[in-house]
Every structure is written in structure tokens, then in C-alpha cells.
């Protein structure tokens, strides 16, 4: 089957803002949409990789994201940025991929990150010690990279998503809320839980027991775990 | 400010978005509380290590994959 050649991304389009490109694409300008694809495909792929840890699946999700974006472009009203809208589509696609692989019913992003008041208490830090090495030194080690990935994977999905978008992808609280379809208050609470849970696990692994400090108030299980 | 109150403001402080009035109280508390100092320090290191990991080279996409996928859809959506 002969592949139709698309207009290539032109230099003039590269100077245009996302909104201008979206407006042009809505009016049938194919090269404008291609410019948006070029602009964001690596970021979408990176997000998909962090969620799926599989190049093939991440590529599938990336393709699906841009297909969905194109098909629903008329619905993009500009209330959120195009990037945030794209992240929402990408996150949805990645979650569907994950659930399909696990044989679970696929649910929408809204159901997955359901709007609910966070009734859980904030986890209290227990293991308080300085780390033996700096993050820059630690990350050079393959085993460390595997450990921190495992810690991330062990988070509840709704906390992991917020952490990925906010702390790894660098979205603002507002953008994260828009991407996930939840309130900013929920983003903040989930982010705090994610950060504290990851801190706890990583400090138990990387912490120097010689610098251990006991929390001032009493807790059950306040002794460091073996 | 007590330790539990500090915990609620931890995100804002670490992200540099804390109200200046609370920031002063926060830092006064940190000056006299080693456990909280360690929590703030290790939270910052936790965030940084994930950022550093993401800065490491991720596999490059095969160029044009998204373009190839979108071309049939673009054809269907042609308005010409």
C-alpha cells in the first residue's frame, strides 16, 4: 500500500505557538499537526516509557495518543494548554494498556483517579537518617536505578501518576490536576503521600544507620526494619 | 509550629511556594528540630533522584513512528 507523503514540517510552523498550530490543524493544515507531533512525541513517549517500562508498548501508546488527539482536536477548547491535554490523553492510553496487559477491566482516567476526598492520613516519617551518598552518585549504579523503580512501582497508582507528572515530568499542580481530571487539592495530598512513601522506602535503603535520629513522638514499629 | 503542622506544609516549602510568613516559622522550627530537618532533606533527595534518573538517556523513539500512525487518520480528516 502506497503511503501518502505528508507535507513536511516547515520552518515557519516551528515559530508558531501550540494554540496557533491547533487552530491551523483544525482548519485542515496537515503540516501544523505534524509540527505538534514533532514537538511532543518524545515527551509523550518518555511518559509512556515511565509508566509502561516497555519500548514497544510505549510506542503503541504514543501513536494512539496522537491519533486520539487528531480525532478529537475539535473538542480541544484551550481551557488547558495543549501539552496538558495531550498528557491527559497519553495517561489514559497508558493506563488502558496496563490494565489490558493485566487482564483487568479498562476504566477511564476519571474512574482510575476518582474524585474523592482523601480520607487517608498523611504517612508519618519513621526512618530518619542521612543518605550515605548523594542522588547524583547513587543514580550511576544500575542496582540503585532498579531499586528506585521498584519503589515507584509499589506506590498506589493514583499516587504514582501524580508523582510522575509533577516531579518527574515537571507539570505544575494546576497542569497535573487538569491532566488527571482531579482537583488541585487532591493533587497536593496525593503528591505529599507519594513523596513521603518514596522517602521512607529510599531512606531505609540508602540511609546511614550511624546518623539515625529517633522521631520525638512515640510510634508503633518506630525501630528501623531489618 | 509543631512537627505535624510542618508536615502539612512540606510540599509548599520544598517546591518554594510557601507563604513567606509560614516560611519563617517553618525555618525557625527546622533550626531546632533534627528529625524535621532530615525529613526535608531526604524528601528533596528523593525528588532529585527521580529527576536525575529521568535525565538519563531514555530510548529514542524511532523517528516518524507517530507520523506514520497519524497519516491514515490525517487522510480521513482531510478537509480539502
What would you note in describing this structure?
- The complex is a heterodimer of chains A (226) and B (80).
- By secondary structure, chain A is mainly alpha-helical.
- Chain A has helices at residues 11-14, 18-26, 30-52, 55-71, 82-101, 109-112, 135-138, 142-153, 157-168, 173-180, 184-206.
- Chain A has two domains: 11-112, RNA polymerase sigma factor, region 2, helix turn helix motif (Rna Polymerase Sigma Factor, Chain: A, Orthogonal Bundle); 135-211, Arc Repressor Mutant, subunit A.
- The model of chain A is unreliable at 1-7 and 218-226 (pLDDT under 50).
- Chain B has 80 residues and is mainly alpha-helical.
- The longest helix of chain B is centred in the middle third of the chain and has 22 residues, at 34-55.
- Mean pLDDT of chain B is 78; it is low at 72-80.
- The chains are: A mainly alpha (226), B mainly alpha (80).
- Chains A and B meet through helix 3, helix 4, helix 7, helix 8 and helix 9 of A and helix 1, helix 2, helix 4 and helix 5 of B.
What are the defining features of this structure?
heterodimer; A: mainly alpha; Rna Polymerase Sigma Factor, Chain: A; 2 domains; 11 helices; 0% strand; disordered N terminus; disordered C terminus; B: 80 residues; mainly alpha; 5 helices; elongated
Question: What's this entry about, in short?
Answer:
The complex is a heterodimer of chains A (226) and B (80). With 226 residues, chain A is mainly α.
Output the radius of gyration of chain B.
23 Å
Low-pLDDT parts of chain A are: 1-7, 218-226
Radius of gyration of chain A: 21 Å
Along the chain, the helix and strand elements of chain B come as HHHHH
Percent of residues of chain B in helical segments?
over 70%
Mean pLDDT of chain A: 84
Quaternary state, please? heterodimer
* Protein structure class of chain A: mainly alpha
Helix content of chain A: 55-70%
- Which term fits the overall shape of chain B? elongated
Amino acid at each position: 500500500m502506497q503511503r501518502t507523503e505528508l507535507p513536511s514540517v516547515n520552518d515557519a510552523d516551528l515559530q508558531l505557538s501550540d494554540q496557533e498550530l491547533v487552530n491551523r490543524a483544525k482548519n485542515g493544515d496537515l503540516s501544523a499537526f505534524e509540527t505538534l507531533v514533532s514537538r511532543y512525541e518524545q515527551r509523550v513517549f518518555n511518559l509512556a516509557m515511565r509508566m509502561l517500562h516497555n519500548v514497544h508498548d510505549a510506542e503503541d501508546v504514543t501513536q494512539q495518543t496522537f491519533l486520539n488527539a487528531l480525532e478529537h482536536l475539535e473538542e480541544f477548547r484551550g481551557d488547558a494548554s495543549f501539552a496538558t491535554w495531550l498528557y491527559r490523553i497519553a495517561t489514559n492510553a497508558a493506563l488502558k494498556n496496563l490494565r489490558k496487559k493485566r487482564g483487568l477491566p479498562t476504566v477511564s482516567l476519571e474512574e482510575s483517579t476518582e474524585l474523592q476526598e482523601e480520607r487517608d492520613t498523611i504517612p508519618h516519617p519513621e526512618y530518619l537518617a542521612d543518605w550515605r551518598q548523594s542522588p547524583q552518585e547513587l543514580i550511576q549504579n544500575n542496582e540503585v536505578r532498579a531499586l528506585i523503580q521498584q519503589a515507584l512501582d509499589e506506590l498506589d497508582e493514583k499516587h504514582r501518576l501524580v508523582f510522575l507528572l509533577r516531579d518527574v515530568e515537571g507539570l505544575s499542580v494546576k497542569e497535573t490536576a487538569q491532566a488527571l481530571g482531579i482537583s488541585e487539592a487532591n493533587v497536593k495530598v496525593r503528591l505529599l503521600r507519594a513523596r513521603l512513601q518514596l522517602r521512607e522506602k529510599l531512606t531505609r535503603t540508602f540511609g546511614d544507620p550511624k546518623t539515625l535520629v529517633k522521631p520525638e513522638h512515640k510510634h508503633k514499629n518506630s525501630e528501623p526494619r531489618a | 509550629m509543631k512537627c505535624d503542622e510542618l508536615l502539612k506544609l512540606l510540599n509548599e516549602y520544598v517546591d518554594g511556594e510557601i507563604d513567606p510568613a509560614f516560611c519563617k516559622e517553618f525555618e525557625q522550627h527546622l533550626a531546632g528540630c533534627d528529625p524535621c530537618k532530615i525529613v526535608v532533606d531526604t524528601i528533596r533527595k528523593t525528588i532529585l533522584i527521580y529527576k536525575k534518573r529521568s535525565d538519563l538517556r531514555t530510548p529514542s523513539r524511532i523517528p516518524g513512528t507517530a507520523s506514520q500512525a497519524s497519516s491514515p487518520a490525517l487522510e480521513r480528516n482531510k478537509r480539502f
